[in-house]
User: Fold 3-isopropylmalate dehydrogenase from Pseudorhizobium pelagicum.
Amino acid sequence: MTKSLFLLPGDGIGPEAMAEVRKIIAHMNSAMDAGFVTDEGLVGGCAYDAHGAAISEADMAKAKAADAVLFGAVGGPKWDEVPYDVRPEAGLLRLRKDLELFANLRPAICYPALASASSLKPELVEGLDILIVRELTGGVYFGEPKTITDLGNGQKRAIDTQVYDTYEIERISAVAFELARTRSNRVCSMEKRNVMKSGVLWNQVVTETHKRTYSDVKLEHMLADAGGMQLVRAPKQFDVIVTDNLFGDMLSDVAAMLTGSLGMLPSASLGAPDAMTGKRKALYEPVHGSAPDIAGQGVANPIAMIASFAMCLRYSFNMVAEADRLEKAIANVLEAGIRTGDIMAEGCRQVGTAEMGDAILRE
Ligand code: NAI
Ligand code: MG
Assistant:
């Protein structure tokens, strides 16, 4: 069975990191008969330069048709002045919206080899393996009304609106419970039911979804502010955290810093399962941006992009053993002291993007 991948390397270090994933795909095809079929498009600033849009309609159609999209990074100073609706980030937002990618998965894994380099206490983060499941298409980032009005007396009023419907909370909590079953079987749901109506509904719907379908999973509730504190104080208490768009944005960035460098962090965004095939639309991307300060130098850390491909193997193709192997290869290479500049430590050997990719491939 062929597996179609649509590659959108984007701008800056995006294409440099994607080149290392392409090597792994080619190897899996030739040595393991993996059957990946790849196609490639433009997104972000490079798409704007070519088409005047952050992604072309033809590439959108290809992204929709593919089994999975691999996305690099977009943006850079060159496009800082382009009109708002065609700015590089608009390409990513369009993909998320049109593919209805409502579940954003952000793992925070601290590789043992990097625990001592963490700015936090090593014993706090060594062996850390948590997964934050953030609702991505609802909540206060999208709710209406969303306005700034002039009150006429020298004052203005800004309004953002938090909106959540039952089905949105049901489907994101189902994703969290299902993922927990493949891990340590624990979910912690975070909201602010003490001050927000959406928090009250969130708590109710997660509780009902749990009772109805997932009562084998251990469920805990935490107020999101307390959750933030616990994430920093004792992060290893968590397995899967499920939360809304706004809290998830912040908590996943906090969790990111437990693991070392931005260059290490993968993510996945999943849609609803197709009624006919059961397949979910999915996009995989590193958390980092296009890093204009180091772009073009061949020094970017490709691990976030490679680990995003490991998530693709796991979640889009159910290639669990292969995903495990790829993640183990990353851990082994770090253990062997091979490092890009962003995670360099005393006594280690510093390498560039391609050398890091090659080392992981060899491993
Ligand atoms: P950034 O993530 O691109 O860079 C932040 C810092 O981390 C920089 O010093 C960079 O060199 C370093 N860094 C990031 N990834 C790295 C890697 N793989 N290896 C080594 N070092 C790495 O964030 P920044 O600087 O705020 O944004 C730069 C551009 O990227 C902007 O145009 C921004 O809009 C865009 N951006 C795009 C995102 C996306 O495509 N999803 C996400 C975040 C920012
Ligand atoms: Mg963020």
About this structure: Residues 249, 253 surround magnesium ion (ligand 2) (CB under 6 Å). The chain has a mean pLDDT of 95. The two ends are 26 Å apart (CA to CA).
